[in-house]
Amino acid sequence: MLIWRVCHESLATKLNLFKKRIVDSLLCPVCQQEPESVMHALWSCNSVQDVWGVSLRKLQKGVVMENNFKELWTLLIADLESEELVEFAATVYQIWKRRNSLVFENRFWDPGKVVEAARSTVSEFKEANATTEGVQVEIRHSIPLWSPSPINTFKANWDAAVDRRKSKIGAGVVIRDWEGRTVASLSSPKIFFPDAHLAESYGVLKAVILCQQLGIK
């Protein structure tokens, strides 16, 4: 879930990639004026404030200033209704999607389109839930309940980024054990053809290699 990643500062922003030595600049790719932290990318950048300015009315009434996105989310949970929180989360996703569209495709949506896409996503989600509501009882027992990973089982997560201007890709890998503790991590920049699919494949490869080095099968 994107909100979980946002609150844990795990998005591939320029600032986070710069800290991992994957990119050379930490400036926001949109405004080119401030470091692109998670909070800047999704809340405080002027281009993003334009989106929030035409979004939820409660956000239009006053500027919410917090140090990080987790604090902002906690505050909004107390102030917004459940449906408003859903729209907020959908808008956050669309803002991040717009940012990536600029970086990878050189396309940038106007604020109204971002809000429209977010509300459309929420509407489609509600319709899908309403459509499947009648069959939930029939399939409930066929869906396994969530359970922790088995003992001695490890999980590898990876992410990738592309710097088209400098023809570089980068991958980050984190390996955790069955209790959620971090066992190992790495970041690996590489001068390569700047293709998003190639970057993802490179991330998988680095994850497999790291697992092999740790003796994890």
Task: Give a written overview of the molecule.
By secondary structure, this protein is α+β, with helices and mostly antiparallel strands. The chain has 2 domains: 141 residues, no CATH class; 59 residues, no CATH class. A hairpin with a 4-residue loop joins strand 1 and strand 2. Helix 3 crosses helix 4, helix 4 packs across helix 8 and helix 7 crosses helix 8. InterPro entries: RNase_H-like_EbsB-rel (IPR052929), RVT-Znf (IPR026960). It comes from Carya illinoinensis (Pecan). This is Reverse transcriptase zinc-binding domain-containing protein.
Q: Short description, anyone?
A:
By secondary structure, this protein is of the alpha+beta class. The protein is 51% helix and 13% strand. It folds into 2 domains: 2-142, no CATH class; 155-213, no CATH class.
Q: What is the string of SSEs from the N terminus onward? A: HHHHHHHHHEEEH
Overall pLDDT score: 82
Number of domains: 2
Helix proportion: 40-55%
Q: Order the strands across the largest sheet as they lie in space.
A: 1-2-3
Uncertain parts: 132-146
Sheet of most strands: 3 strands, antiparallel
Question: Can you count the beta strands?
Answer: 3
Oligomer: single chain
The end-to-end distance, rounded to whole angstroms, is 27 Å
Instruction: Tell the overall outline.
Output: globular
In DSSP terms (H or I, runs of 4 or more residues), the helix count works out at 10
**Would you tell me the structural class of the helices and strands?**
alpha+beta
Rg for CA atoms: 20 Å
